[in-house]
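Lab notebook, bench 4. The sequencing result for the construct came back, and we need a structural model before the next group meeting so we can plan mutations. Quick request posted to the team channel:

Model the 3D structure of this chain.
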Amino acid sequence: MSTEIWHNPRCSKSRAAKAALDEAGVAYTERRYLDDPPTAAELDAVLAKAGVEPWDAARLGEPAAKELGLKNLEHDRARWIEVLAAHPALIQRPIVVTERDAVIARDPESVRRALDSA
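Done. Here's the predicted structure in token form:
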């Protein structure tokens, strides 16, 4: 597997991570995950690779998160994965996935870790 970035071009943090990959000369595949959402199995694998629980990778401030009552959802990994796969806009972005690991690259330190892994 090559490097892949789960990207939302409307998100400034996502654009910044993509620009950092470009600047570093990293070859990658861009996955616009809102148009091509991950399956529950893909999401589970990527979050496990990142060492992150789904409730820690959720955008809880989004209106859909409030409508779904995510803040009150028990920490049942399978249920959270199911919800996030059904509502990909609730997944933190960007996520850089490499052969070795996955990083939610929302800040410069995380982007550096992603670049080191790519």
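Residues 35 and 88 are 9 Å apart (CA to CA).
Will bring this to the meeting.
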